[in-house]
Write a structure and sequence with these properties.
Helix content is 23%, strand content 27%. It has 4 helices and 13 strands. It has helices at 2-48, 60-65, 229-236, 244-247, and strands at 67-69, 79-81, 92-95, 98-101, 115-117, 124-132, 137-144, 158-162, 201-208, 211-216, 219-225, 257-260, 267-276. It starts with a helix and ends with a strand. By secondary structure, it is of the alpha+beta class.
Length: 277
Amino acid sequence: MKNNILISKFIKTIYSLPIVLIFIGSILTSCGDKKKDSEENQEVEIAEIDVPAKVNELSQEEKDEGWKLLFDGKNTEGWRGYNKDSFPSQGWVVEDGAIKVQGTGSGEAGGPGDIIFDEQFKDFELTLEWKVSEGGNSGIFYLAQEIEGEPIYTSAPEMQILDNDKHPDARLGTDGNRQAGSLYDLIPAKPQNAKPVGEWNKISILVYRGTVVHNQNGENVVEYHLWTDNWKEMVKNSKFKDWENFLNAGGEDKQGFIGLQDHGDDVWFRNIKIKKL
């Protein structure tokens, strides 16, 4: 009797073994498939990562999106003096991959003057990086008109560049509207997030059908709308009130030049890129 019971259990074990093996095999196959799927997904994800652009270069993604490099870190091709045929022979140099205006210590007097990129833009997004010397001042002009005998600032809105800690302009104007990132002397940059002297600030200026947005270090700090009643009222109540070309920024065709300001201080610019919208 005992032998019969042992034989019966043995037979059941033999019959159960294939089922166990099939179950184990199923688990192993499932794990293998999951591992394979995970590896395939990982490969796809890696393949989709865009390699960031180096300084003064365009990434493949930027090229595909239509961005244009305005400065390659090596030469000043495409740039010239405002109301001049060529690039200034002194006062502006290429240094360590940046366009640098060399300070004279005399403010706007006696320097090499402002420079512009020799192409007009209408609807666009401009990006660049800047850093300023201690107590330094400069600016980025856009929609500038080239008018004989008139300085660039009489026709162009300006995104302010400033050492907010040391330059007196930071305490002048109204509500901080002469600090870095501001629409100079009109709209203060809020939040005020400029980096200290010697550090690179990344900015963008978006112009699209009259809407203008200043972005500084990843945050929108100014937004306004050209040619509207609000714009006209704002200009009317400012020091620009008698400048007709400033009121009609962009001129008849609502387009203009990009300019970099010489204000007598050491300032550096790099990674200058633009995309037409």
